[in-house]
Amino acid sequence: MAYGIRLHVWGDRALFTRPEMKVERVSYDVMTPSAARGIVEAIHWKPSIRWVIDRIQVLNPIRFDTIRRNEVSSKISATSARSAMKAQRIEGLVNYVDVDRQQRASMILRDVAYVIEAHFVLTDKAAEGDSVGKHLDIFNRRARKGQCFHTPCFGVREFAADFELLEDGKVARAPHESLIDERDLGWMLHDIDFDDGMTPHFFRASMKSGWIEIPLLQLKGGAR
Amino acid sequence: MTTIANRYEFVYLFDVTNGNPNGDPDAGNLPRLDPETNHGLVTDVCLKRKIRNYVSLEKESEAGHAIYMQEKALLNDQHKKAYEAEGIEPSAKLPKDPQGTQLTQWMCKQFYDIRAFGAVMSTGVNCGQVRGPVQLGFASSIEPVVPMEVSITRMAVTNEKDAEKQKEQRTMGRKHILPYGLYRAHGFISAKLAERTGFSEDDLELLWRSLTSMFEHDRSAARGEMAARKLIVFKHDHPMGNAPAHVLFDAIKVQRAAKDADLPARGFANYEVSIDAARVPSGVTVVERF
Hints:
Chain A has three helices and twelve strands, in the order ββαββαββαββββββ.
């Protein structure tokens, strides 16, 4: 791929929540393609491009940790917000955290590091001035300088992701020896089709030498 | 009000003396510990709670500074008035734009914590959400901490049944404290997300103020003495930023002062904070708030 990018990302903690275990959250063993896409988009994204994740490499051994926190159990509805807006006053438009409380555990990943390989394609929103080179330049320039639209994160915002652009064949480092053998990771979330009523798509992930090949995803709006 | 035009990162140091900064519900309210390293932890949401509490204390009910996630103790039940749904067909989805955007913008204008931290405020899936510009990580202690269990007695019992059972008429309780712990938290403020929620320069000042003073207004039996020790802010010239966050964070070193490096730390004076100015790239200004 002429216009692919490679990004080294790492952090202390990560939580890529499994959709089947999200009340007491349990993380996938590795980063999902959709989380990787979120990281790349945090650095540069425009409606005229769509990021496609090609491969993810896991560099660190997979280790878990748990953390339990007090959380609120409900949200305020759009309807109540609307009626408060109409009435121009906000009394009652609050969540009481100590009444509406849940304690939830999360099983999170520790000390993660990945390499994301991705490219982008132009969408039908691309205007005349949108050339592939331009967006690639913007992305590379930002990633090189550590610039970002907002700080990227590993699954949830409290776990910030540090990043570094891997230029011209530069290698982050070798994956940990525990990752060399082929490993089946089971069915993992690939991404969510937002054009098709938030349909989740899954793929069978397997990892060898840390590499997870991400298949192309057939979305309603085109392949991703 | 103009929204902020710069990206920021900050390193926030706070300490606890003879107290429990953040109890772990999984471990009988022991101070949170990283099981691998025994470093103490304070969650991001714990700090955000204190920021919210400080803002509602300072601003009371000043317009535009309401707090969306309230602690009930701060309010009375009068506020809990009913508000009726409108005649529009109830739907789990946020109304289509421009109504939806108006609604979100209005919420941002009224509530400080939505402007700063964002909020999920609809019952639908993925709608009416805002991401705020302010993002906090977990705070962890500079060195491993050792929690102590302190047994205490109460010279009374709760009810008659207990009174009959126990001749001495007193109860024993337990407290978990850390003799001392210095914690370091990292924060991120995105100028681009601030544009969307209207997080202004004034809001930013209020955030710095709350980080400065929030522990002063959060005294309790459990917390012991907690104090904000240092707030170092990195201001990027460019809204997207001029340097990677980790490079900036690496420029701040918190180490034990050499003279008593072998003894357990019992105060902030046991530590030295240094800023390696040479590692801060051009385009980034370091501001020591205190």
